[in-house]
Predict the structure.
Amino acid sequence: HSAVHVNFGSVLDTDGKVLKSREGEVIKLFDLLLEAVTRAKAAIDEKNPDLQGEERERVARIVGIGAVKYADLSTERTKDYVFDWDIMLSFEGNTAPYLQYANTRVRSVLEKSGIDLSRLTEPVMLVEDTELRLARALIWFADAIDSVVDNGFPHVLCAYLYELSRQFTRFYESCPVNKEGVSEEVKASRLKLCVATSNVLEVGL
């Protein structure tokens, strides 16, 4: 094995000051993650108050811990970044909760279809502009992975997943899947795009 030096920027507080562990200004990772889960619970209570019990606890851990990890990885590692709870736990913008919510939306579309997805054999038809843009975004996944492996910049993958989610949102808004009047052929094609999107988001995350 050969050792490679990988340099990182600093983590700043919301006042722009560098957080320095040797000066006792930084909380321990364990406490940080607990705080992230607690704040995620508050966000869930606001966005989905019907979610309760063990499922609420499970989702809070996924959202909270995922938010911290993603905030660290989504910034180019050589640059400084501001540690801001409000930004990292936001359901808008380039954040883990936004991507997680995007995948939840995709899975919801698939579940509502009532179709055995393993039996989808029809070809994908790229007719609408948003279908074409989503398909183009999907095929760039391997290149994003290769770039991270070759250059050690995880933010490239994060940026890719964010762009994929944005393209899916545009597709979702302009290309109905389960709506009445959509032919079975078109529905099957769009469901396959949804399956591919969910697979890439889950593997990427």
About this structure: The beta strands are 11-12, 81-82. The CA atoms of residues 115 and 188 lie 9 Å apart.
